[in-house]
Structure formats: structure tokens, C-alpha cells
Amino acid sequence: MENVAPRERILNAATLLFHQNGYNSTGINAVIDYARVAKASFYAHYKTKNDLAIAFLERRHKIWFEGLIKDVDKEKALKNKVIAAFLYIKKMNEKENYRGCAFLNMLTEIPRSNKKMYSLIKNHKSDLLQFFQKIVNNKEQAFMIYMLFEACLTESQVYQ
Amino acid sequence: MENVAPRERILNAATLLFHQNGYNSTGINAVIDYARVAKASFYAHYKTKNDLAIAFLERRHKIWFEGLIKDVDKEKALKNKVIAAFLYIKKMNEKENYRGCAFLNMLTEIPRSNKKMYSLIKNHKSDLLQFFQKIVNNKEQAFMIYMLFEACLTESQVYQ
DNA sequence: AAAAATATAGACAGACTTGTCTGTATGTTT
DNA sequence: AAACATACAGACAAGTCTGTCTATATTTTT
User: Is the CB of B49 under 7 A from strand D?
Assistant: First the structure.
């Protein structure tokens, strides 16, 4: 459980704290305390807090999509695939305290000028739309599902 | 243009800065500088930054809904009313730099423990759903429109 | 075993934050 | 004209933030 390299402990802590309490509300000190890592060790692995945020988004994108694909691929029928996708949101929200979408949350906290992060967020959403286009294979319908999916994500944050 | 009482200048500044740059990224100093108001004057009108945020949400709720109702009431046919609602988002986003929903943005920046703000946000969204239920007068259809409306709001932030 | 890499704790700088306070000026009401 | 409310500028306290640095300890590699 604790036999994990510092670099990964840091990323795990950031993943939990950024998503749970928000990016700006989470200081580096909170991250290193949670990760049980010295401050110098942190800055040896990540040059800045911004770099950590980028690593967080990149890993989150990977893991989140892997989980989605795994759940959706279990189903054969198209209808059940779509249902599985929505159940995946439900599952994740229950696990993560109804904090909605980590990417959308980050988007509201960073300045527009942060090109790198902005493109990670946008690409994440484009990939999600493409994902639905692939399984539904009707552009308009896929877009509709995508929009409802996004709404579910944000509304779960409002209504818990 | 500038012949406005300090209390209102402060709220105007907060409205612009909170929505444009985010709540946590906007310091009191930025607000009073923009409002051209002394710090002591600010704290004479608003006890804390949190109180200012509450005033901001309350006024935003009022003004935003008034604008929505005004645009929707212009139309007679149900279909056109719905379209007018979506055009209202478009108009507002163009005016406000594609920063999406001020309430959802605030939600991601505050801690769960902030009951007062949380209830303002939740009530804003309940009122919006009720608004659609009133004009569409079919619960399921109204919910669908509400969800798509919400998705439009957030997606405009992603894709500008 | 010696050398190099990686970890630790925590002090520190400098810039921010919110909120308080002092002292002064302007404007309104009596 | 006197009294009061409201405005101003800005110093200050107390705490936060990110990021740097020193000095020591523990691993890992050679």
C-alpha cells in the first residue's frame, strides 16, 4: 500500500486533492503532506505546480478512458454500451464524492493563457465525443449522447 | 457611467472579475482597484469576501433570469421559446467571453461546507429546470431540454 | 566498501492573501 | 455652521502561497 515511489505518491495525492478540493485550494504543502514526501523531493520530480497539474490531467485522461472503455466493451448491444457509459459516470461519481468532471473543474480554475492545460482539456472532450461517434456511428445521435453525458457529469455535482 | 455608488461599483467589479478570472484567482485588492474604492469602504459594505460572493450570486440569479424570461417571452410558439432560450446562452457567452455558467464555476471553487453558497447554486439550477417545465409542460421533455441547455453552457466554455 | 543518486526535514525568501486600523477628506443633514 | 455619515489612501497584521536552499540520511550502483 505504501510501498510506492515518491513520484507516484505525489501524483496520487494530487489526483485526490485536486479533484476533491479544487486546484487553487490545494497548496503544494497539502500535496506533500498527503504524499509523505519532502518538499525538495517534490520539486526534484515536478518543476512547478503547473507541471504537476499537467501530469495529473494526462494520467487522469488515460485512466479515466481505460475505465470507460473497459465497462463499455463488456456489452455487446449498442444500447447496452450507451447505458454502460452512463453507469460509468455514476460509479465514478460515487467513488469520487460527486465532484463532476476533473477537466471541466480545472478549466474554470486556470487562466485562458494556460495553453498547455487548455489543450489537454479540450482534447479530452474531443476524444470523448469521438468515442461516442465510434460506438454509435451516427454523428448526430453521438453528439446528443455526448451532450447528455456531459450534462450528467455536471449535474451530479449540483445535485450530488 | 462612473456616477454609481461605491457599493454598486464593488458588485459590478466582482461580477466581472469573478466570472472572468474565477473566484479564488480574484483577490479583494483586484476588486477594489477595479471598482476604484478604498479598502475600508469595501469592508464597510461587505463583511467578508464570502458575503460579496453571495451578493454576486444573488444578483446574478436575478438579472440572468430576467434576461432569459425577457427573450423567451418575446416568442409565442413553444418551439420558438425553446430556441430563444438557447440563443440567450449564445448571446450571453459572446458577451462574457465564453466563461460558461457562473454558478457551476463557483461550485467547483468553494468547499462543500459552504452551505449558503451551495444552496444558492442549487436553487438557481432548480429554478431553471422549473422554468423549462413551465414553458414545455411535459416533465420528461423539459428535463431533456434542461440537460441539453446545461451541456451547451459548459461546452461553450470548452470549445469557446 | 566507496561513490553517486535519491530521499529526508524544515528554514527561508518573496510575493501573495484577507481583513483591520488610522487618519483625513468630502458631502449631507439638521 | 455643527454634526454625522460616508468616502478616501494606504500602512499593517497574520497568515497563506510557491519555490529555493541547506544539511543530513538512506538507497542504489559501481
Answer: no
Strand D neighbours among A 6-45, CB < 7 A? 26-30, 39-40, 43
pLDDT digits (tens, 9 = 90+) for B108-132: 999 999 999 999 999 999 999 999 9
Say whether residue A130 is in contact with chain B using an 8 A CB cutoff.
no
Give the up-direction half-sphere exposure of residue B43: CA atoms within 13 A in the CB hemisphere.
5
Q: CB within 8 A of B111, min separation 6: which ones?
A: A21, A25
Location of C-alpha cell 472579475:
B17
CB A153 within 8 A of CB A104: yes
Nearest chain A residue to B158, by CA: A122
Contact B108 A157 (CB under 8 A): yes
pLDDT in tens, A106-144: 999 999 999 999 999 999 999 999 999 999 989 999 999
Collapsed DSSP state (helix, strand, coil) of residue A76: coil
Chain A residues within an 8 Å CB radius of B22: 24, 108-109
For B112, list phi and psi in degrees, rounded to 5.
Answer: -55, -30
